[in-house]
TrEMBL record:
Keyword flag GTP-binding: no
Enzyme Commission code(s) on record: 1.1.1.100
Natural source organism: Oleiagrimonas soli
TM spans (from-to): none
Top-rank lineage group of the source organism: Bacteria
GO MF annotations in UniProt: 3-oxoacyl-[acyl-carrier-protein] reductase (NADPH) activity
Keywords: Oxidoreductase
Signal peptide start-end: none
PANTHER family named among the record's database cross-references: NADPH-DEPENDENT ALDEHYDE REDUCTASE-LIKE PROTEIN, CHLOROPLASTIC-RELATED, RE15974P
Protein name, per record: 3-ketoacyl-ACP reductase
The UniProt record lists the keyword Oxidoreductase: yes
Top EC class for this record: oxidoreductase
Amino acid sequence: MTNPNQVAIVTGASRGIGAAIAERLARDGFTVAINYAGNTAEAEQLVRKIEAAGGRAITAQADVSDPEAVTRMFDAAEAAFGGVDVLVNNAGIMKLAPLADSDDGLFESQMAVNLKGTFNTLRLAARRLRSGGRIVNLSTSVVGLKLESYGVYAATKAAVEAMTGILSKELRGRSITVNAVAPGPTATDLFLNGKSDELIARMAKMNPLERLGTPSDIANAVAFLVGPDGGWINGQVLRANGGMI
Ligand code: NDP
């Protein structure tokens, strides 16, 4: 069980993997700020669910690609709870197309949310996280798999992995770890939307455990890295994918 005064911001936590991470961290004793872009109803519902289970949470609307909105989110969390100990950079979008067919909008939107969004929160966390804190960035196993049509998406996450290792060193002396979790196919809107049942079944069998990941599979990995047992892991990318790569 974590110190009850520890505060975690989880970006993109209104649904999918981020919601599972927020719920798990609240269960582990963190006070959680549930960031989201537009889905207020789902974020508020998650706060109520966490509170009903005895946890502490608030909603924190902010488009992570907007540095001023991210600053307001940190300000609000610090004002409400006195400081921030954990940042989980989970907010992300995925748009797939072969490079030949990728337009500027596909490139710019994913760069804005996945890379600039992560940069915006990392920069503030580097300045303001309390000593002993933890940072976890969400990458993807596609950085290793190199599947066709994932070019721009995987490129944003490869850049996130690069910043993960570098920030872990820049925070020398602060007792803050910085790691990434790189899921494989996980049953959320982001993965399932727009795919045929046949393609989903085929991708589920790409790992030797022969199933899709669940949001709680990924939340378990994040909980390890931000919890008491993960303190010696720093600057690493943990692929959570059932052994796909
Ligand atoms: P979902 O699409 O299910 O959920 C995305 C979440 O991100 C929502 O809470 C959404 O908020 C939020 N979000 C989107 N854009 C922004 C923004 N600009 N600012 C703030 N929040 C935003 O995604 P997943 O749960 O599947 O993915 C979570 C992370 O895991 C992503 O980084 C993704 O790249 C990564 N990942 C996912 C895999 C998968 O197979 N699912 C595999 C590998 C990595 P709102 O509800 O308000 O729109």
